[in-house]
Amino acid sequence: MNSTTGALGAVGQQEAKGMQLAVEEINAAGGVKGRKLKLEEVDDQGSVNLTTAGFKKLATETKVPIVLGPGISANAKAVAPLADQYGVTQILLVAQPEVANGTKHVFEVPLPGKANSEAMVNYAKEQGAKSAAIIWANNPYGQAGNTDVTNAAKAAGIDIVNSEGFDPGKFDFTAQAGKAAAADPDAIFLYGAGGSSDALVLKNVAATGYEGLIIGDLAYSSDFIPETAGGNAADKVVSLTAVDYGNPDEKTKKFLDAYKAKFGEAPSVLSTYAYVSVQLTAAAIEKAPEYTGEELSKAIESLNFESIVGKLAYTPEWRGGPNADAFKPVTFKNGEYAVPNQG
Predict the structure, then answer these.
(1) Quick one: which of 14, 34, 93, 173 has the fewest CB in 10 Å?
(2) What does the pLDDT look like over 31-66, one tens digit per residue?
(3) For residue 246, which of 166, 332, 163, 178 has the smallest C-alpha distance?
(4) Phi-psi bin for 25: left (phi > 0), alpha (psi -120 to 50), beta?
């Protein structure tokens, strides 16, 4: 269940690509228990009402025992209670464990947003930062990021000297960048919205001549950052992300290469989460004695599944993704992913 059309269509399309690749790979290897996987795709167009209607149809008419998605927070919150109501296992693609925690049949793959903030602050502290500014997208995701980074910085002994929100629909962020740089912090944290405005914020920060650390959330690992921000700016940012683009292990590199070969682009973090959700599903089907929501949920909870975004270890109390330790630092060099130089 993805939002492949509508205002958030780009998000759902990334997720759909990740799922499609995973299904193709699993089926090419013989499927699961000798049977091929088939995706029954539902486009909710980003609408909460369509998400709810689509989930009910999948549960009662199509009678699938497991649903992957949605990846939009409001939609996920609306349908999570339905998973328990209908006894259907659900793997959400949102980074808000509070949506899934306390349920019987709902799980999440994405690393929690709060953990991303903690990873950013941990990296800054490791590099010796004592003070920082924050530039954050003025939407629910960015607002939460601002709060989480601020709290994590306080706990780490890093003084926040400036905090500026930006409208993701705008194109000029000279004012926010100028104020952050003028505060002369050791680091500037960037918390984006997942679109081109993130790169433009980075471009404006670099244009101030700021020479300290620039540390971004996972949005700053998107492959369009160098082209939109410019190579000089892209080389300055370090993103804490769920995918080790800069120094991938064998399993991650195989995925990155396969995705690029099929779609002609690097996978986003969202694509990767969706890919992992299918792998998790296949592992659960393999382990479960019956293909039912009840048994699939039990299987997922018992797996301790090692994935390319970290270990997915669920308990009755915890249904979120991996913790801050699973985030990897990545930067760019000459437009390509690279391992950052660490002081």
Answers:
(1) 34
(2) 999 999 999 999 999 999 999 999 999 999 999 999
(3) 332
(4) alpha
